[in-house]
Amino acid sequence: MTTSFSIAIDHATLVGDRREGMGVPLMLVHGFGGSRHDWQPVVEALPSTLPLVTFDQRNFGQSTGDAGTAFSHAGDLLALMDALEIELADLCGMSLGGATVLNFALSYPQRVRRLILVSPLIVGWSWSDDWIERWKAIGRKARAGDLDAARELWWQHPLFAAARSCPNACLLRTSITAFHGRQWVQDDQRPELPETERLHTLAPPTLLLTGALDTLDFRLIADVIAASSAQVERIDFADAGHLLNLEKPGELAAQIARFVR
Length: 261
What we know:
By secondary structure, the protein is α/β, with parallel strands linked by helices. It has a single domain, classed as Rossmann fold (3-Layer(aba) Sandwich), CATH 3.40.50. The protein is built from ten helices and nine strands. Helix 2 crosses helix 3 and helix 5 runs antiparallel to helix 6.
């Protein structure tokens, strides 16, 4: 049985869905500009008996937060787990969600049984000049009030090159169209030290799932994570890009199910 929830935490409200099942719950955390619905193709392929929690991160999807209030997504995840009375979870994060669960696992390892990183971002990463210039161009459009143009630049970003031609491309287009774009104008995430300084302390067994066609920044991030801890098992899909949840949902679900089983 799946039920929806709306939980008030510090200066925010997090909205999500919880599916009951036997064992340690798996929490799925979406990427930038998306929502919990981005996981739907994967959820449909996961075992129906696996307990799941999907939720919209602060200021994405249906979740909200007070403007100007500094926060961390990992702190929100801790508050959500406490509110849902989840003492221990398997965590799976995609892109920005990967940064969220990695940051959480490094800060609260006792709350994580197994960690799954899908094309992960990393807190405090030093981006390439190409990434920065593209991000600035999107931000300029958003700050000028031309959100349609900003969304089009995001849709055309090299990050989504492989996803734009996959069968689930319409889901990506729908997700981008629904994104309000506030974080392109102002992001209230609390500044943190680069995560690379403590990756060697990663404790939970970790599965790193990547696409060989992903952009250079994300390829380098994955290489750094894989080289930093003996806890990391890496699987690299030769014919996939960044959005494995849309490009390879069945294969992604199979690897997740194997790892948490």
